[in-house]
């Protein structure tokens, strides 16, 4: 990733705002609305002023910061891992679903039960220590490429959203990821790719164990209950791990609606940004008819709550760096 550009902070007695960070990849209308909101809530003379300590911004990951089609990238990691390791795992070879996946037959995903998909992801995670899992994800990120774009997955992040993350941080917002993806998976790359440190990444997680192995303290992933950080679970996760209601939310699906409604109920003036995937040439076009990123009720709620709906075909001047 390229180095973050240097910024010069311009002093303003009534504002914490930094004026030299530009949303260059945004069309004028959404750019103006975002900047107007930030200008207002960072102006200490405004009735809508938000103190720095309450400037909490949360973002979904899949479909909001990077693509989630034809399926989320973490699922692709699991698919590739099973293909690479099945010869080493005799128990996988007796599972028809995993066997077909290992042969590159992804058509089985279209009719897969949730249990099959969970087992697939579990197969690529369970039994590894935290360091082994991190190493496996890093190796995949360094070598795997997206077939549609022939680029590494960590290069396929949305330029406008990277600009927005930086713009908010320069105006003293603290940025978090609150996603249905695995927390440990995202924590491997979130700081390098998004500038969001691991301790500000909230996601789904499974059971772990702690033990001493040869005198070394080890955390390992084990079979057990899973917390799925999606829909109504997102406000719960925000409460549990952040402890403050966000004032800014970025999302792209019905799975993000609950945390947007949670933010909208704040005593502060809030902004929710809902990405609508409408660009089938540069990215993908989908909303209702999709296995990942279904959006229907959130679009209706956006009208009622005056959320900012971003038409990616019209409002994103560029998609990827």
Task: Provide a compact summary of the structure.
The chain has helices at 28-41, 73-85, 96-102, 114-123, 130-143, 159-170, 183-194, 233-241, 257-264, 297-305, 312-315; strands at 56-59, 145-146, 151-152, 174-182, 201-204, 208-213, 216-221, 248-251, 271-276, 308-311. The protein is α/β, with parallel strands linked by helices.
Question: Could you characterize the architecture of this molecule?
Answer:
By secondary structure, the chain is an alpha/beta fold. The protein contains eleven helices and ten strands. The strands form three sheets. Strands 5-4-1-8-9-10 form a six-stranded parallel sheet, with helices on both faces. A two-stranded antiparallel ribbon has the order 2-3. A two-stranded antiparallel ribbon has the order 6-7. A hairpin with a 2-residue loop joins strand 6 and strand 7 (216-221). Helix 2 packs across helix 4 (114-123) and helix 5 (130-143) crosses helix 7.
Chain-wise SSE layout:
Elements: H1 28-41, E1 56-59, H2 73-85, H3 96-102, H4 114-123, H5 130-143, E2 145-146, E3 151-152, H6 159-170, E4 174-182, H7 183-194, E5 201-204, E6 208-213, E7 216-221, H8 233-241, E8 248-251, H9 257-264, E9 271-276, H10 297-305, E10 308-311, H11 312-315
Parallel strand pairs: 1-4, 1-8, 4-5, 8-9, 9-10
Antiparallel strand pairs: 2-3, 6-7
Helix pairs in contact: 2-4, 5-7
